[in-house]
């Protein structure tokens, strides 16, 4: 049990309606004749539902502990991604809805941080930038534009990003996993 509503910070996980929820935003309010309150916006980690909850000073709530483990991405099929725990070598799967858009940046054999709640995987974390190899792109022709131009490039994981004209097939580039944009040559 938490002791104070000031423990409700953005990014923390609380147990609400028997589901771990991440605090997306919060706001502390104190009025003259009333108890202080913390207005929060919560997002269910498992269901993804977003809702608002006002916690009153003295109200009981439970902060959730999650576990992060290193796991190796193995492969994916139509609706599931498969991983192997790097410490125990146990294999487990996660639905692609849980993995989300991050699966586009995963190469086979690459490590990822898997978030677990009560032993069940609920998400993955990747570094902000990942290095991927360009598998297909059109050749850039000098003088195509007056200023720096871009072209589409297909990377080894199948994702298509816009890259500068000087990037060629076989080059390794860094891609931002949050925006899906080209950052630099690797």
Task: Quickly list its features.
3 domains, mainly beta, OB fold (Dihydrolipoamide Acetyltransferase, E2P), 186 residues, 15 strands, 1 helix, SH3 type barrels, five-stranded antiparallel β-sheet
What does this structure look like?
- This protein has 1 helix and 15 strands; from the N terminus they run ββββββββαβββββββ.
- The chain has one helix at 96-99; strands at 13-16, 19-29, 37-44, 50-56, 62-63, 67-76, 80-85, 91-95, 111-117, 120-125, 129-137, 150-155, 160-164, 172-176, 182-185.
- The chain has 186 residues and is mostly beta strands.
- The chain folds into 3 domains: 5-63, SH3 type barrels, CATH 2.30.30; 67-125, OB fold (Dihydrolipoamide Acetyltransferase, E2P) (Beta Barrel), CATH 2.40.50.140; 129-185, Nucleic acid-binding proteins (OB fold (Dihydrolipoamide Acetyltransferase, E2P), Beta Barrel).
**Secondary-structure element series:** EEEEEEEEHEEEEEEE
Strand % is over 45%
State the end-to-end CA separation: 46 Å
- What Rg do the Cα atoms give? 22 Å
Shape: elongated
Strand order of the largest sheet: 4-3-2-1-5
Determine the fraction of residues in helical runs and give it as a percent range: under 10%
Ranges where pLDDT stays below 50 over 5 or more residues in a row are none
Number of domains: 3
Which CATH first-tier class of the largest domain would you pick? Mainly Beta
Second rung of CATH, namely the architecture of the largest domain: Roll
- Number of DSSP helices? 1
What is the structural class? Answer: mainly beta
Using the coordinates shown, work out and report the CATH topology of the largest domain: SH3 type barrels
Q: Total strand count, please? A: 15
Reported for the largest beta sheet, the result is: 5 strands, antiparallel
Overall pLDDT level: 85
């Amino acid at each position: 049990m938490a002791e104070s509503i000031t423990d409700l910070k953005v990014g923390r996980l609380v147990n609400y309606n028997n589901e771990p929820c991440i605090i997306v935003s919060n706001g502390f309010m104190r009025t003259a004749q009333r108890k202080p309150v913390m207005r929060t916006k919560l997002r269910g980690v498992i269901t993804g539902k977003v809702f608002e909850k006002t916690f009153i000073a003295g109200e009981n709530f439970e902060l959730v502990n999650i576990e992060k483990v290193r796991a190796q991405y193995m492969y994916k099929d139509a609706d599931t991604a498969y991983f192997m725990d790097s410490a125990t070598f146990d294999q487990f799967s996660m639905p692609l809805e849980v993995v989300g858009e991050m699966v586009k940046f995963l190469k086979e054999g690459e490590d990822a941080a898997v978030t677990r709640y009560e032993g069940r995987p609920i998400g993955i974390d990747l570094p902000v930038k990942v290095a991927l190899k360009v598998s297909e792109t059109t050749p850039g022709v000098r003088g195509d534009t007056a200023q720096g131009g871009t072209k589409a490039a297909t990377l080894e994981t199948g994702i298509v990003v816009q890259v500068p004209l000087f990037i060629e097939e076989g080059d390794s580039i860094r891609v931002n996993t949050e925006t899906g944009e080209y950052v630099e040559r690797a």
